[in-house]
Structures are given as structure tokens and as C-alpha cells.
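Appendix B.2, paired examples.
Example (i):
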Amino acid sequence: MAYIYTLTINETSRMFYFFISLLLSSSLLSSCAKDKAVVSGEPGKLVISVAGIMAQDDPNSSTFASGAASARGIALNAIDNKNVESVEVSDFTLDIVSSVKDLSEETSIITPSVIKSRTVSSSNGLRAAVTQMQTGTKYRIILVNTSNNKIESSEIATAGTLLEIDVYKGQDYKWFAYSYNTEDVIPAPDLANPTIVSKTNLPLLYASGIVNASTVGTTPISINFKHQLAQLQVEVDTRGLFGGIESLAAEFSGDCIMTGNFNILTGEFDQQMTVENVGNLKFEKLDSTSNRIQIAKCYTSAINLTSYKVQFTDLSIRLINDDVEVLTTKFPSAGLVEFGAFAGSSKGKILKGMLEMWKVFPLKTVLHVEGNSHFSYAASNPLRASGGFLQNPSNFGPKSNYLRIEGFQSETILAATNALKNRLANPANYPDIIIAGMFTGFATDDYNALAEYIRRGGVVFLMIENTNVYVDNFMKSIFGNTVSTANYDSGGAIYTMTNEDADVLNWRFGDVRGKTWGQDFSATLYVKDIPPGQVIEYSNTSRNYAPQTGMSMFRHKTKHLFFVGDTGFLSSELRNGQYPGYLLEPFATTTDGSDFPVPHTAYGNAAAFGSMDYPKAAATYQAYNSVIFGNIFALLVATSHYNGIDKS
């Protein structure tokens, strides 16, 4: 029995090992067959596009340190993610403003991915808020086969154009993409050591992910880039002085500008950074038509800055009276300015430092000439929208963010015969500024007195809508005998502002270039045949009535006169807000206590047959009367200060 038992065990063992051998052989053959399918299987394609540029989602992103104080011991005021330090320097105020924003916010839009993607990306989000990458921007993408961790492809691609890469279906791939956000071709990196050196004049965008090549059809990858550097932005704003920048020179001080080696496969910088000396900053105009704001930008791989310093060596401005003033000699700390109190990571952020210069104008006397205070035609009544706007210190006050002035001393006279003549009889008592709604009550002597006031350098915001011999003679005294006037249009007429004169129309209460204003319930006065070169034209014919010739709004280039052909341009019987009608009272302000000027959003008569806007419906225009008034009046305040008036 034992012998038989032994034989049974041996036979069983042989059978067991035989089957094990068959199983192992089958497994090896199966494995070899599978490997062979990956290497030489059915070809597929990755189809690659750019979704856009996403904001950094780092919870430690840069903000401001709480309780921060400046180097001079002046407390910083953190408002709307800004730190503001105000320094009194000679006869002007210097605001040193530090702020933080995401690099992707500069032209942010909401856009879906071009196509749905199966990729798992470190910058994913199929319908996230992104900045659209400009069509034509170049980027490079590197593809790694995960089965052997070898780089299989390095391709240059263009935003707005689909890129196809041949792959094997069913295989996993890692992909890495980077861009300098320009249209320049990006050189291929060393694939044995795929690193790039960051630049100080260009951003660095990066994204990565893993994708499985579909066994059916093509496989899309939609790239959402993220910024890897911080941008240091230096801005100089002299609008508060009403002066254009004549010369400007500055450079970074210290080791805030760095470059580093960026590993494409890990998405990280080497720990060792190189301090760069970029020399004099390259300032550029924010608006090509104005030299009152200039900005310089530089990129750094130092993404944990708490502050940075800028040495200003030259800043001079030309005021509106043509005087040139050198400001750097008046700067504190010999022109060395520190921006900061930043905290957290600044990767993908703009750390902005702004020098905002202001003149706090002394108290100005304002003569309001109007026929009715109920509608505050000349902004005299603080219980109406135009008067409330003018008297609110958040708009016109010593600490205002719009125009800084100690205030106004107001006087009001009615539009009656000889009233203006009598008030202006003694030049020694001239007001600094006149806001005048010239109704039909004024006669020859009133207009002559106004013309003499203007000749002596007086500043006037003039509203006239009636045509008569007195008005014609007044205009001829300003422009010569070729000029004439005419009445056209009616209540709710709409006029388009030109795009010229950015320093006025784009400052300080809003950009009104190309915007519209509305007539208040009457005809509009047009001034015709003004000699070329004497005025800046702001508007001419209406949009919703028959086309006419002449100007309905202008500013004189040498005399301190602003004209609009509507006596009710500032009209509103409300304390603030928007009057419900669409043919009258176009002046509108906010109801939040600031009395800030805003457009009337439902204004204008229906466009008549033959007008440029026919058949546009009534109450479908926006009337920017209040914003236009704010911008113009700010200029008039500065003009009265810098140019003065002959009171002899």
C-alpha cells in the first residue's frame, strides 16, 4: 500500500508540475503578446487645443499682511486688496499704493473649453473662468509614454489651431506644455534634461496632465495654462496734478528680480535662483493718446516677496499751464520708494506698486447762473442730483479719489436781464469758475460781461439752447464773424461723444469716449462754422433726429470755455438716482450716499425716420451727462488754479 501511495504521489507531482509549466508558458506568451500590442498596436491620435489661462488656486496666494506699517511708520490702509500710504510732499500729495491681482484677470472672460477633454490636468476645469489665450500664441508640448517613461514627442503648437500627435491606442501618456505667451517660436529643450530658464521680460505659462489614448476615434486634450512667475508692475500716475510726464527714470533696488531653471517634467523651479539687474525700467503709456500714466512690468521667479523697492531718479511733469516741474527732488528718502506688505505666494500674481500724485486745490469760488433751482440747472442745489454730486466730499474733497480740493464757496444768481452784468462788474470780485445756464432772460450786456470774463482768463461751463441775436453776437466775440447758431432736435435727443481728448474724457469719473449724452426736453443749440483749430469737438449731430451740421458740444483750446447746447444738461429734480422719464432730466447719480455720477440707463426719444439710428425704440439709450460734467468740471477746477484770472 505504501508503494502504491508513493507512486500516486509521484504521478500527481508530475501532473502538477506539468500544468504549472503550461500555465506559466501561457502567462508569458500572453504578456509578450500584450507588450507587442502596445508597441506596434493600432495607431491613434491626440488632438490638442488651448482652453485658456487660469488663475492660480493656491490657498496661500499673495495678499497683505495684517497690521502692516510703512518704513516711515505711517499706517497702511488696506482697502479693496490695496495698501495706501499717503505722504505730504511740498505742495502735493504722494499716494504710495500697493495692490495684488491675478495675472489672468487683466483680460478675463468666461469661455468653455474648445472640446471636452479626457485628460487629467493639473490645470483642469472644463467650464472655468479663464483668460483666453490670443490666437497665434506659440506653445510647446512634450509627450511621455508612461510604459517606459521615454519622451516620444516634442512639438511646437499655436493657440487657435488644433495640433494632432500620433500615438498608440490604449496607451497612457503624460503631457507637459509651456509658453511665453508670445507669437515667437519656442526652441526645443534638451530632451535629456528638459529644463528652461525663466525670463524677466516674459511670463512663463505651464500645464501638465495624463491622458489615455482612446481605443475609439481621436483623443482630445484641452490645455488650461497657469502662470508660474510673479509680475512686478510699477505705475506712475500724474493725472491728479493735471500734468503729463515729461521724463521718467527708475530701477529696482535689491534682489527682487530673479530667474531660475524650471524643470518641465516636475513643474518646479530649482532652489538656486539668479539675481538679475534689469537696469532702467522700460515705462510705456497706458493710453497711447495720453502721457499721464506710464507703466513698467518685469517678471521674477521670486514668488514669496513681502515687498520690493524702486529707486526713482527722474520724474518731471508738464502742467496744463505749460510749466515744467521736477518732482523727484521733492520725494522722501531720496526717491527710494518701497511697495509691499505682501504675504503668501505671488506665483501668477501682479504685485503692483503705484505712485499716484495729487494736487489738493485750495477753496474755489463758484458762481451758479440758472433759471430754476428746483432742477438745479447750474448744480447750485445740494438737494438735487447735480448739486449733491458737486458738494459731496467723496467726489470733490481733500481726501477724494477723484478730485482733491478743499471745497467750494458757492453763489447763485437767477438768469435775469443785467444780473450777470452786475455780478461781473468788478473784476476784483470775479469768481474762480462760472457754471451758467443762459436762459432767454439774458441780454447784450450780460453776454458782453461774460465775454470779458472769459477774455481775462475766467473759466466757464456754459449751457445755451436758445438762439437769438445776443447769443450770435456772443459767439462772434469768441470766434469771429463767420460763426452762426441754429436750433435743431427736441427733448430726448441723443448725441455721441468723440474719442478725442483722453486726458479729459477718460478722467476722472469715467471714460465717456464714444458714449452718448441726452437733451433735456427742448431743442439743442448748434454752433456752426467755427474756424478750424480753435476748439476740440466733443459732439455734433444727434443720433435719433434728422442729421444736421454744426457742433453741439466743444471745448475751446486757448480760452477756458466749455460749451454744450442744452441749458438743462445738468437737470434733475431728484436728490439722487435716475429720473423715470426718458425725454427730460438726464442727470443721474448713485443712491449709496456717494452721489457718484452714472449714466441714465433708459433715456432718449425713439429714432425718427431718416435719423442714423432709425428705428431704434425710445428709452433704449444711455445718457452720460453726469459723468461728462464731472470730467469737464475737474479740468475747469485745475485750469482756474494753474492759469489764474486777471482781476486787475
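Example (ii):
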Amino acid sequence: MEARQTKNRARIASCLIFLACILLLSGCLGKQQAQPSPGAIAASVPAGDFGGQWWDFYKRGTLLAERGQHREAMADFREAIAQRDKDQWQAEIDSGRAIDYFPHREIGILHVASKEYNKAILELENSMASASSARASFFLNQARAGKTDRDAHDNTAPEILFAGSTAPEVTSNCSKVVSGVVSDDTFVAALTVAGQELPMAVPEKSKVFKTEVLLTEGKNSITAVATDLAGNIAEKSLEISCDRQGPLIEIEQQKVANDQVSIRGNVSDNHELGSLSINGDLWPITGKAAGYNFEFTLPDGRITIIAADRAGNVTGARVRRDELDFRGNDSLPLPAPQETREQDTDPPVIRIEGLGSEVETSSDTVQLAGQISDASLLVYISVNGEEILNRKGRSIYFSQSRPLGQGRNSFRIIAADAYGNKARHTLTVNRMNEPARQMEARLRLALLPFTGISDAAGSKEGFMKGMRKTFLDQARFNLVEEEQVIAACRELHFNLGAPLTPQEAAKVGQTVGAEAVLTGRVVTYGAAVEIVGQLIDTDSGALMARNDVFGYDPESTGSDGLFAGLADRFSRDFPLAEGALLEVRDREVVVNIGAKDRLRALARLICYRVGPPARHPVTGVLLPAEPEFVGEVQVTEVGKNSSRARVLEQKGGLLRGDKVIAR
């Protein structure tokens, strides 16, 4: 009996074990059926025919990622990578079509979403190494910042080192080239110099920088500000004094006796004198004094006094017996000193060297040099309301370098003596751009409507209006009128905003007389927008440059907006590089600028010739001559330091040494 019960219990246990296995197997099968197969996923995504090619997996992966199916999307991206590993702009697929292909980038973005920062950084760096994109850069910044915040709290600010001396400097230049390096143990995320943001494609541990900063008269503090990914900020400044005023030469007394001229005077400067010469002989100057007295006697005749300060400004005075030699025989005699107690009623005499009341120039500065004299003591001299310091002499020679804006520049000189007599002199300098630097000489660019503009990117009209305004404000390219572009598209039977091949875009450019066209597309990722622009040569239909921006503010036209970012990138790709012709052949030339100057193939260069400079009759300073247009060339081959170009146009023949500037 007991044996039979034991046998029954064994049978029951076996049945229970069997039922448990059945239930377990059923549960496993149920779970497997809950996971859609690749075929089921493909069927659920309206991506057209799925052929199992790398582009099929990539397209399906992007759609799955948008739907939040990250694991399935990542699997598809991996399948695509197994067939085609490298990220690439416009990767060719069947039938001559092409797509932007970035599987490593998209995998990295999915890792950022799941806070797997180490994996994200590897994938995004891989993508940037193959094909740099603004979207990859954006999320690489996020991944690095997230990793820094997670792994360790960074309290150390970046280190900024300027190249050269950091001691206070005095210069007469209108600008200062500031260069150096900024480094950080994590990554430098942003850098500004004098309020100007310097471009950084991705954060770097060590960033070498170089930029030109405009200076104003007086003291200038140029500050560099660096920020790392943890938000730590470092600042460092250079102190530069901009001095464009030459020394003052004051003639206090001038006597002639027995064919000898005795002169007593003073030379002074608002900073520090550098040298003083009289008739070519150096006058001894020691120390760092701002002024010196001089007294000498020389045989009667022309006497020339030249004074220079430490900044390089020069003032000259040519003194002849009883008269100034500023205008040859037309000079007026030096006013006689007041020897009575009667009040002086005559105003001071103002003479300006070499400039009439109306002057035209292409230079960005003008040299105001002259002499002011009076029978009494001069107590006040100003240029445009800025007082010129003086020691109240009777005859004062001055020199100033003044920056010129585009168009008309007026200068009003006022002098007053001790009796309140005033003299005024006004002259106008009209600054005209050199022909090679005028907007009409810049690369003529047709801006075509971009494709893919959705509600996230704003209306098509508003989007293109913002884009056009930004390029116009930047003033790097000479834009074709919008109406001409629209008329050309209609004439060629192209739909506005429809995708165009490079050859079709080039036809639009040729129709409106442009040398290049800018076309592109907009890709939306939820609230984020990616804008991709392509600059195409109209002669060949070849791609000159491609740039992209990514962010969440597509219609901002401020300095931080996407439009401004895109315009800045194309401007940096095509700077106004300048150089000269090294070799001239029949239809080919060699220029002394290349990759180091950011010159690109297909860039166009204007060739011009500059005659010998004229020399200032008093100070001896060389004055630039006006340039002459002699031709145009297009770059065909770019080397590191030099490039080859084909001749498009020439006027009278090109010569070795002719100047060139990018259009």
C-alpha cells in the first residue's frame, strides 16, 4: 500500500513538472511573439520598398528613432554600418541618387538620450572624423558635458596664453592681431576675444586662435574669455594704447642775423618721444621724457625738423627765413609777435599740408599734417572737438593719422589765441573703396529657395527672407536680386523650392549672371532644425563648399542665429585672401596664396596693379597709390603656400608681382 502511494506521488510530480515546462515554453514563445521581427518593423514603417540595402536600413532606422523605438533603430543602424561603415554627405545609392548618411552620428545621439556618454562620444567622434556635421558637434558637446558632470566636478578654469609680450603696448596701427592658445583639462567649449566669438566646430582641449581687433584712439583693453564644458570661465586681457597723434613741434623764437638763423623751440608728445632730427642730424634724446627743448643756430636757408614718437607717428616742420614752406612760394609770412600792449584782433592762421578742402582716397586713413601760427600765444587747438595738447606757443606743427569710414569724412580744425580770436578750417575726405574691394567686385551669388522648409523652420517666405537678410548684412557676397532668381526659375520651368541638381542650379546662376549659386535643404528633428547649404560654381556645376548648422532657433538673424552661423561659415570658407602673382604663363598663373590662406579651388581672384607710392613732402612717409584693374583668374589647384589658376580675363597683360584679391 505504501509502495503504491509512493508511486502515485511520483506520477503526480512528473505531471506537474511536465505542465510547468509547457507553461514556461508557452510564456517564452509569447514573449518572442511580442517582439516585432525585422520584417514586421519594416511593414510598420511606411518607408517604401525595403530592399535590405544599407540605405534601406539607414532610412528605416531614422524613422524608428523618430518614433522612439531606439533599440530597433540602433539595430538597423548597425546593419547599415555592416554594409557601409563611414558617415558621409551625399552618399550615392542606386540610379544616381544620393542621401546624407550618418549612422554613427545617429547611434551616438541615441546613446546621449540614454546617458551612455562614453559610447556616445566614441560614435560621435567617429562621425566627425568621417564627415563633420553641426548636428554631430551639437550632441558631442552634450555628451562631453554630461560625462564631465557625471564623472567628476571640474572646478578648474581654462588657461589663456597670449603670443608675444603681454606688457602694455603703444601703437599707431588701427588694429591689433591677437593670437595665442587656450587649453583646459576637460574641453574648451567657447572662446571670445574683444567680444567677438571665435568659431569652434567642436570643443577642444587646446585651441590655437588668431583674430584681428580694431582699436580706438586711447587706451584699449582686449579681453579673451574662455569657457569649458563645466561652465568654468577664464579671462585675460591685453592693454594697448592707440596713439595716432604725432609729436608737436613748437617754434618759440626765430631770429636772423649775419646770414645765420637762430631757432628756439620745443618738441613734445602725449606719450613718449622716439627721435628728433634737425636737417638730417639726430638731436640727442635720453630717457623717456615726453618733451624736449631745443635751440640752435644754422646758416640761413631751409631748416627741416622731424620728430617721431615711440608709436611711429611722425611730424615734420620745414622752416625758412620769416616764412613757412608748406606751399612753396604761396606761403604766407610768419605772423610778427605782439610787442605792444594793444589787444591782438587777428585770428590764427591754419595751414594743412597737401590736402584741399575736398579730397578723394581709397585709403582707410588720412594724414592730417599742418601748422598753426599766431602773433599771440595759441591756447587752444582741436580736431573734431578733440583738443590737441600744446604749451601755448606761437607756431605749432602737428600731425595726426585719422581712420576713415566709407563715404564722406569731415574734419573741423579750430584754433584760438590768448585774446579769444578763433580760426576754423574744414576739409572733407571722401573714402572710396578700391575697385577690387567694392561690393560690385565681390563674388556674384544667387540665393535659391531651400527645400524641406516645414512649420518647425518657419514659413518658406519668412525663412528665405531671414536667410537673405543675413547674407546681405554680412556683405561678403554680391547677392543677385530675389526677383531675378524667381524669374529665372520660371523661365527654366523649375518649381520654386523643388530639389534641383547641381547642374540645374548652375543653369539658374548662369541665367542671372551669377558666378555661384547657394542652394540647400532643411531637415527637421522635432523642434530642432538642420540647415545644409551648398555653394555651386555656375560654370561647371561643381561643389565649391558645403556647410551646415543645427539648433532650435531657425529664424533668428542675430549673431547667435542659425542663419548667421551658416553665413559666417561660408564667409570663412572664402575669405578676402590677398597675394601676388609669382608666375605668369600664356593662360595660367601661379599665386603666392594657398591652403594656409584658406584658398579653395574654383575661387576667383581679381588681379590689379599698384604704382609706386608717393612720398610725403615733409615727413617722408610713403603714401599709397591708386590701384589699376588688370585681370581675373580662377583657382584650379591649391597647394599649401601657392596655387595655380587659369586666366579668365586680362587687360593689357598680366605681370609677375601684380596683386590679387579674392572676389
